């Protein structure tokens, strides 16, 4: 190592691999991080550049998955929760949470200046970020449970973007990879509804066999629908928005609407013929 007042240079070992990336000098690399997960079959390097992209590579230089567009200049990238998630911050003046595949999940915290560093406390859900104006912020992340139950079938969210359906009697499990943030899950008989940020996907069982665990896509409602609660029926979904209930068919058209006197805290499909199912509601004022 050589150090003087005009230069600083060092060399440790020899070059083993060079990854040539598209963009060249127009996409300078600003942050790197290795995925610490022991479950990955290969070592994965996460690369954040000022071409506003997030990409992933193996030791051999092969790209893993798709390159993700961030929409801002990233200044820091760090893995979180044993490699399940990624923290990214930069010119967006915020720290964002992504899956290990680079799917955006949400915002951890917003600041008034660029975020230059972010790190998670080991083996915990606490995240610290440092900003250009000298601000240091500390956040605790709480991952809520998203699930649905119908008789012996239990569906729940895993890793924020996957849905696991478990048969409680046979203990069979099936995983549906949604590749987007799973916000709500509803299950009823042979139907399964999964709400994502920009759409709701309706799944159905391949057969009427009580032990069948194979689901296929029935319909997609390509609308951004906000709701507090969601249930699915044979041919409809019902959205709860504070005091209001909306019944939509699988095309996304509203067929009926109800207005309650108090906030709706609980909703359940209690059965009935197709397209005429009954709903049980629990209101904040104690009414059922």
TrEMBL record:
Keywords: Cell projection, Cilium, Flagellum, Repeat, WD repeat. InterPro entries: Beta-prop_IFT122_1st (IPR056153), Beta-prop_IFT122_2nd (IPR056152), Ift122/121 (IPR039857), WD40/YVTN_repeat-like_dom_sf (IPR015943), WD40_rpt (IPR001680). One of its GO terms (biological process) is protein localization to cilium. One of its GO terms (cellular component) is non-motile cilium. Transmembrane segments: none annotated. It comes from the Eukaryota. It is found in: Cell projection, Cilium. Residues 40-142 form the IFT122 first beta-propeller domain. It holds the Pfam family Beta-prop_IFT122_2nd. Residues 147-288 form the IFT122 second beta-propeller domain. This is Intraflagellar transport protein 122 homolog. It comes from Portunus trituberculatus (Swimming crab). The gene is Ift122.
């Amino acid at each position: 190592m050589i150090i003087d007042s005009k230069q600083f240079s060092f060399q440790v070992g020899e070059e083993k691999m060079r990854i040539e990336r598209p963009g060249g000098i127009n996409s300078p690399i600003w942050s790197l991080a290795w995925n610490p997960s022991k479950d990955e079959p290969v070592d994965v390097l996460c690369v954040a550049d000022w071409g506003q992209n997030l990409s992933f590579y193996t030791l051999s230089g092969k790209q893993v998955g798709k390159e993700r567009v961030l929409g801002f200049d990233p200044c820091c990238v760090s893995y979180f929760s044993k490699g399940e998630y990624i923290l990214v911050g930069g010119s967006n003046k915020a720290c964002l949470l992504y899956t290990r595949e680079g799917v955006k999940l949400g915002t951890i915290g917003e600041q008034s200046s660029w975020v230059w560093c972010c790190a998670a406390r080991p083996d915990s859900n606490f995240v610290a970020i440092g900003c250009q104006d000298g601000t240091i912020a500390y956040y605790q992340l709480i991952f809520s449970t998203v699930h649905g139950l119908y008789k012996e079938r239990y569906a729940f969210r895993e890793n924020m973007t996957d849905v696991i359906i478990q048969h409680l009697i046979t203990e069979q499990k099936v995983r549906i990879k949604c590749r987007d943030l799973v916000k709500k899950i509803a299950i009823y008989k042979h139907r399964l509804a999964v709400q994502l940020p920009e759409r709701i996907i309706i799944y159905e069982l391949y057969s009427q066999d009580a032990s069948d665990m194979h689901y296929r896509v029935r319909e997609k409602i390509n609308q951004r629908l906000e709701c507090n609660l969601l249930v699915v029926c044979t041919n409809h979904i019902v959205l709860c928005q504070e005091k209001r209930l909306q019944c939509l068919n699988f095309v996304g058209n509203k067929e009926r609407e109800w207005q309650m006197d108090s906030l709706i805290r609980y909703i359940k499909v209690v059965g009935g013929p197709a397209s005429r199912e009954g709903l049980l509601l629990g209101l904040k004022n104690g009414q059922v």
